[in-house]
Amino acid sequence: MRVRLPTGDAWRTVRDHLDARLAAGAGVIDEMLDAGLIVDGTGRPVPRDMAYVPGMFVWFHRELPDEEQVPSPVDVLYRDDHVVVADKPHFLATIPRGSHVAETALARLRRQLGIPTLGAAHRLDRLTAGVVLFTVRPEERGAYQSLFRDKRVTKEYEAVAPYDPALVLPRTVRSRIVKERGVMAAREVEGEPNAVSRIELLEHGHGRARYRLMPRTGQTHQLRVHMSALGVPILGD
């Protein structure tokens, strides 16, 4: 695993930064350093007192933890020489992060399609299912990522929820949403809006309706929270 030391930080030693960043547990980083398992760009072991140099790289072997298998497949919706579009299931992380390494959409697709250069142009939360765009060529990845960063890509969803004849649609919902770490649900609070969604009614009957949902931002559980706030929570939510 390659780690780049951030340019904006000012740690005294490489050891101090890795111990705080990786949170590997008491004494683990020291044991790896003493065993010569962490090396610099020339392959030389990094000593405990090596000075922190912003921008430098260090390498080490990462032991992969046992990961819980997500039974749902990652279905490829479209593929050409430049991109792969796939349907990521619930509970599968988009990219390796934290304890999720092999059981991620990116790792699965690299193995499944035999494309080691595959990379994600954006990501969805682990608990969220949806369409994800992957790039085949590393030199093109930045261009695709900028489309998402600059909000030049639009996302559109459909949902079934109760029908309320008094609810005026279409409308754009703006609010501030927060999600606390370790808490499953997100909620609206007072403050500057950080979540914007466009809600449209497509059809209704028998007390239910089909809605078109277009998030303009990407807060966790944003569409669920906005629909619930309108009094028409998504069916099954």
UniProtKB/TrEMBL annotation:
Keyword line: Isomerase
Signal peptide: none
Pseudouridine synthase RsuA/RluA-like domain sequence ranges: 82-229
Keyword Chloroplast on entry: no
One GO biological process term: enzyme-directed rRNA pseudouridine synthesis
Gene3D superfamilies to which the protein is assigned, alphabetical: Pseudouridine synthase
Catalytic activity reported: a uridine in RNA = a pseudouridine in RNA
GO molecular function ontology, one term from the record: RNA binding
Domain of life, per lineage: Bacteria
Protein name: RNA pseudouridylate synthase
